[in-house]
Amino acid sequence: MREMMFFRMVLVAGAATMLAACTSESENGPSANISYESIAATQQVPVTFGTYMGEQAITRAGIAGNIADDGTNTAEANLVAKGGVGVFAYYNNAGNYPETLTPSFIENNSLEPNFMYNQLVNGDVSGAYPSQTVAWSYTPLKYWPNDFANNAAVDNQSTPAQGSKNTTVSFFAYAPYVATASATGPTGITAFTANTDKSDPKVSYTIATTPDASVDLLWGVAPTSTAYTITTGTTQPVTAGLPNKNLTKQTTGEKVDFSFNHALARLGLTVRAAKDQVGVGAADGKELWDSDAANKTRIYVNSVTITSSMSTSGKLNLNNVTANTAKWENKSAAASTTLNVNGSNINPDLVFDLGKALDAGDQKPGVLAKSPTDLMVNGTTNVYFMLIPQDLSATGTNQNITIVIDYDVKTLDANLAAGMSSVNNRITKVISGINFQSGKAYTLNLVLGMNSVDINATVADWGAGTNHTVDLPINVE
Question: Rounded to 5 degrees, what are φ and ψ at 82?
Answer without folding.
Answer: -90, 0
